[in-house]
């Protein structure tokens, strides 16, 4: 398996100019204190113009990396169609685009009037880079194994649109499919979220955001059932410093470098007063009552052994599975791989083990969709 961490297809070797692994600084006592606001995590906010320039540079690298990732056989599918919808939840008005991948038989839906399950996916990239096509290799298994429509959400990115826009766009995508699913031959009673890295966070927090938003609506919302979350190496707790997370990791040299995570955090965590304990930012900090109410019955959780996010993901998975929350949790820690290992930019073959795990995840989702 790949031993170089990647960010959605970009190889990020954590080495210095001598070619040896960099030493990970030990966290200070100040680093170990819980972070309360964005300023605690970022310090003095960098120039938003500089952040945009830096983000665009990384986006161009990511495009190259993912182009190589998609060259490996079998080739991933492409979206069948897209829908651009207006945001309704965020104060930052605008549009988001839904990319629809359709399973075999979808083209005959008008004759059969069949409704399909749907997996609503959120790509990774630190809420700053990435594209809705990034997880197309996972989409192939959703189409073939689950016989479900795969909807990839092109949520708005930071620094142009900092927290909480991405999460609110995620909740908006869910709300749109609940309201318009039957028009798209999607069964609103058979929905699941999925996501990778930052998208793994949105897969969780969008259900919380939607649950809270529905309480404010006066007009009724059609009956629906979000049955599952499938989250891959998500960030779950922003109240703990990156320094602490790196130092705790079993392979600190394989974690994402500070210059990149600093860009992500400064771009997304803005303005300075944003509370890092918000449940739609750090689901670890949500109350038991809120998690029990808002999180779907089944949670499929994958974490990576060499990832700085491994510990917080595992802890949240355990918490969701025990009393008083008592969700059905399927958690697997993938040994010997770094964050986003499955997006390796190798044009010769998919990342080792990735297709087997995609298959496993979709077998779980298929069973969830079959249930009453």
Computed CA radius of gyration, to the nearest angstrom:
19 Å
Q: Which structural class should the secondary elements be placed in?
A: alpha/beta
Please write the string of helix (H) and strand (E) elements: EEHHHEEHEHEHEHEHHHEHEH
Beta-strand fraction estimate: 15-25%
Poorly predicted runs: 15-21
According to CATH, what is the topology? Rossmann fold
Question: Mean pLDDT across all residues, rounded?
Answer: 93
According to CATH, the homologous superfamily is Alpha/Beta hydrolase fold, catalytic domain
Number-wise, the strands total: 10
Helix content: 25-40%
CATH architecture: 3-Layer(aba) Sandwich
In the sheet with the most strands, the strands line up as 3-4-6-5-7-8-9-10
DSSP helical segment count:
12
- Largest sheet at a glance? 8 strands, mixed
How far apart are the first and last residues' alpha carbons, in Å?
38 Å
Q: What's the CATH C level?
A: Alpha Beta
The structural domain count equals: 1
Report on the structure:
The chain is built from twelve helices and ten strands. It is of the alpha/beta class. The chain has a single domain (6-13, 27-370), classed as Rossmann fold, CATH 3.40.50.1820. It has an eight-stranded mixed β-sheet, sandwiched between helices. It has a two-stranded antiparallel ribbon with strand order 1-2. Helix 7 (198-214) crosses helix 10 (288-294). Residues 15-21 have low confidence and may be disordered. InterPro entries: AB_hydrolase_3 (IPR013094), AB_hydrolase_fold (IPR029058), GDXG_lipolytic_enzyme (IPR050300). Residues 29-39 have a biased composition (Basic and acidic residues). Residues 18-27 have a biased composition (Low complexity).
């Amino acid at each position: 398996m790949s031993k170089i961490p990647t960010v959605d297809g970009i190889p990020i070797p954590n080495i210095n100019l001598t070619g040896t692994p960099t030493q990970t600084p030990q966290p200070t006592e100040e680093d170990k204190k819980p972070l309360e606001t964005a300023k605690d995590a970022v310090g003095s906010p960098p120039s938003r113009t500089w952040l945009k320039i830096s983000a665009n540079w990384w986006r161009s690298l990511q495009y190259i990396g993912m182009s190589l990732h998609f060259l490996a056989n079998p080739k991933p599918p492409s979206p069948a169609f897209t829908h651009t919808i207006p945001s309704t939840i965020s104060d930052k008005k605008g549009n988001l685009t839904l990319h629809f991948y359709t399973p075999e038989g979808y083209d005959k839906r008008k004759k059969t009037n069949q409704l399909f399950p749907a997996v609503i996916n959120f790509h990774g990239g630190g809420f700053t880079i990435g594209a809705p096509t990034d997880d197309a290799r996972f989409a192939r298994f959703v189409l073939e194994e689950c016989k479900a429509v795969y909807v990839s959400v092109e949520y708005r990115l930071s620094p142009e649109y900092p927290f909480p826009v991405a999460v609110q766009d995620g909740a908006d995508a869910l709300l749109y499919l609940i309201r318009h699913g039957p028009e798209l031959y999607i069964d609103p009673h058979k929905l699941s979220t999925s996501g990778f890295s930052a998208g793994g966070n949105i897969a969780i927090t969008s259900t919380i955001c939607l649950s809270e938003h529905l309480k404010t609506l006066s007009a009724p919302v059609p009956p629906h059932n979000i049955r599952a979350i499938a989250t891959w190496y998500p960030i779950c707790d922003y109240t703990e410093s990156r320094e602490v997370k790196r130092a705790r990791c079993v392979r600190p040299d394989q974690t994402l470098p500070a210059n990149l995570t600093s860009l992500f955090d400064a771009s997304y965590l803005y303005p300075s007063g944003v509370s890092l304990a918000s449940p739609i930012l750090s689901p670890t900090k949500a109350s038991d009552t809120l998690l029990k109410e808002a999180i779907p019955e089944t949670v499929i959780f994958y974490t990576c052994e060499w990832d700085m996010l491994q510990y917080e993901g595992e802890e949240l998975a355990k918490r969701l599975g025990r009393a008083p929350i008592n969700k059905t949790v399927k958690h697997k820690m993938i040994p010997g791989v770094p964050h986003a290992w499955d997006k390796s930019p190798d044009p010769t073959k998919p990342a080792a083990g990735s297709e087997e795990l995609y298959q496993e995840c979709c077998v779980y989702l298929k069973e969830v969709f079959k249930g009453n």
